[in-house]
Structure to design on (394 residues):
């Protein structure tokens, strides 16, 4: 473990001297707004990051991902160093439309900062950027370190090739630190549920409800039974491996026609691929049962965000990072598995990944989103030490 008082004074002094610069970088990044579909706005954010990484002499690249999708911004510190890369991954898109919070929405007040995406997850990108700067200041050259920032994470990269690029650039790495925000309780994330979206279509027989009532087969009636059976699939215990929720329903056209079609949308959250297989099997069983004669139902997968599984490699990586945090007196309080998805799920099985390595905060995806300013500076310190101790992750 590389740690001594002299080195720690050097790192703390560097962070203290760059406090304002880091805050201004965070401010500018938040004020570069954009959600999926606003490609011009996101291109400006990508250009900002590209320029800043080039200022470090890193020969940054913009990797195209699709006609409507924002590019990946990536750069490598120490590209000639031997060994596998450490990757700092993150996303610069947010769920907020540009301008929805007024001009230049970032603000700092006391110990907190506010603004769309300040916590999720532009604070994490700021940590990663200033870790690279601190490593240059320390003349660290022993290991390649990559920044990899995507622009379409909040929509699971629909319509683009970002997932392919994530898999390509993380196929053989030492470790990935995914810079999603931490909770204020201080845990790092070692597992996330996958998010699978399905459509169920029930087909019936249309007819006139007055003079041909018995000829009709009401798809809404059949779907009503299906909804009850589908909702019952979720295990009763709270520490469950999967949960299913029927969230949207559409059926019928007018009141004088027995409906021949009804659709519902389902949200399925799973901890593992084994849980996915079990849940899908029970869904198929539920749909195979017919209550209204001559009706049929089909299950269609609409979108898939795989789980970030809690593997031995993930736990090993977390254990090293927790040991580093304890040694330097940093603020990692433990590990946690959460329900929300992230790009950690798209990295190859067996990869060493620790997620939620960014700033601490709360109320993400809402106008009340905030982040703790002190967690920015402590995050820079912690992950500078993590890279300096790269050999511990082998």
């Amino acid at each position: 473990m590389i740690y001594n008082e002299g080195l720690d004074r050097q790192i703390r002094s560097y962070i203290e001297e760059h406090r304002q610069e880091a805050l201004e970088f965070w401010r500018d990044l938040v004020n570069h707004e954009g959600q999926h579909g606003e490609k011009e706005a996101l291109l400006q954010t990508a250009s900002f990051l590209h320029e800043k990484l080039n200022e470090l002499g890193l020969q940054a690249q913009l990797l195209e991902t699709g006609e409507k999708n924002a590019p990946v911004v990536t750069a490598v510190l120490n590209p000639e160093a031997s060994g596998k890369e450490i990757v700092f991954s993150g996303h610069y898109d947010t769920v907020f439309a540009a301008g929805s919070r007024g001009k230049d929405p970032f603000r700092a007040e006391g110990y907190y900062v506010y603004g769309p995406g300040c916590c999720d997850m532009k604070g994490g990108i700021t940590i990663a950027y200033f870790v690279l700067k601190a490593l240059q200041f320390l003349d660290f050259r022993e290991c390649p370190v990559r920044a990899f920032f995507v622009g379409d994470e909040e929509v699971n990269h629909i319509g683009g090739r970002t997932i392919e690029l994530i898999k390509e650039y993380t196929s053989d790495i030492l470790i990935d630190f995914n810079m999603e925000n931490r909770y204020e309780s201080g845990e790092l994330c070692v597992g996330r549920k996958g998010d699978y979206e399905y459509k169920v279509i029930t087909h019936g027989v249309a007819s006139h409800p007055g003079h041909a009532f018995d000829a009709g087969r009401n798809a809404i009636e059949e779907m009503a039974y299906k909804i009850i059976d589908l909702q019952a699939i979720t295990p009763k215990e709270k520490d469950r491996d999967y949960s299913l929720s029927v969230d949207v329903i559409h059926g019928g056209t007018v009141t004088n026609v027995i409906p021949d079609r009804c659709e519902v949308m389902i949200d399925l959250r799973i901890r593992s691929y084994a849980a996915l297989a079990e849940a899908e099997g029970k869904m198929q069983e539920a749909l195979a049962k017919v209550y209204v004669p001559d009706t049929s139902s089909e299950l269609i997968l609409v979108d898939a965000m795989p789980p970030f599984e809690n593997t031995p490699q993930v736990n090993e990586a977390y254990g090293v990072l927790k040991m580093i945090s304890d040694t330097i007196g940093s603020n990692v309080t433990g590990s946690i598995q959460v329900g929300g998805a992230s790009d950690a799920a798209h990295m190859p099985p067996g990869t060493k990944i620790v997620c939620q390595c960014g700033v601490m905060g709360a109320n993400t995806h809402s106008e009340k989103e905030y982040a703790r300013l002190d967690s920015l500076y402590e995050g820079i310190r912690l992950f500078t030490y993590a890279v300096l101790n790269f050999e511990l992750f082998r």
Observations:
- The CA atoms of residues 244 and 327 lie 42 Å apart.
